[in-house]
Write a structure and sequence with these properties.
Layout (H helix, E strand, L loop, with lengths): L13 H11 L3 E5 L5 E6 H11 L15 H11 L1 H13 L19 H11 L3 E6 L2 E7 H17 L1
Antiparallel strand pairs: 1-2, 3-4
Helix pairs in contact: 3-4
């Protein structure tokens, strides 16, 4: 489990969230209400999927992966189709996190087996799982963490 790097509120715009994720190198963040109650998570992938739903006919981007960056997608479009990029930015600015937050994803506890959480993330293509104890957010597990642990375990198995 990692520390809580950043959280967003239900009123944060998708544009603000995407810029925050990109600037901090995050895959997403837990969404907390004004009482610090966990509402769910929002990830870069969620925002990319939202853009694809809202703007049919977008070209397939090679960089739309687990590490997709909305900022990169919009910058790419600014060179190819400035009008489309402007419309996407406008829509992201007008859409609040609460409209996209996914509260149905797994929430882990601090004692949950890391391999079970990692398997869930791989199977569901989820990039962020909040860790909750006693009803309070205490950390997160993200895809980069899972990948790092798997690499380390593979390295240990190969050398041992």
């Amino acid at each position: 489990m990692g520390p809580i790097a950043v959280t967003v509120s239900p009123e944060t715009s998708l544009e603000e969230a995407a810029e925050l994720f990109a600037s901090k190198g995050l895959l997403g963040a837990p969404v907390l209400d004004e009482s610090d109650r966990l509402l769910g998570t929002l990830t870069e992938t969620d925002i990319v999927r939202f853009v694809r739903r809202e703007f049919h006919g977008l070209p397939r981007f090679r960089f739309v992966t687990w590490r997709a960056r909305v900022r990169d997608m919009v910058r790419f479009l600014e060179r190819r189709s400035p009008d489309l990029a402007f419309r996407i930015r406008t829509r992201l600015r007008a859409t609040k996190t609460r409209q996209l937050v996914d509260g149905d994803r797994l929430i882990a506890g601090p004692d949950d087996a890391f391999d079970a959480v990692g398997r869930y993330m791989v199977d569901t293509k989820t990039t962020l799982v909040p860790v909750v104890e006693g009803g309070r957010l205490v950390g997160t597990v993200d895809y980069d963490m899972v990948r790092s642990v798997v690499r380390q375990e593979l390295g240990d198995a190969m050398s041992g």
